[in-house]
Design goal:
This protein has 92 residues and is mainly β. The chain has no helices and eight strands. It is elongated, with a radius of gyration of 14 Å. One of its GO terms (biological process) is homophilic cell adhesion via plasma membrane adhesion molecules.
Amino acid sequence: PPALSFLENPSNVTSSLGKTVRLRCRVRGAGEPPEMGWQRDGHPLELADSDQAQVPLSEDVWLATSQLSIPAVQLSDAGRYQCWARAGGEQL
């Protein structure tokens, strides 16, 4: 079985200019907790405003959540956003 699996990942989000947008993804895995991040149009968002939490479900299984916030969204924020997770040599 895979070390990582997405339980929630954003699909289509529509917003009005000036509103805050929050994108959330949730990953379940076994072994070590993941490293998580976001990208837009295939490029890493190095300084993204994101919150992350990891919750152990058992001794070897965890649930990790990452939420990306885009305050006062502008037209320049448009694009394809994706969450990624990496753990145990596997990346999704």
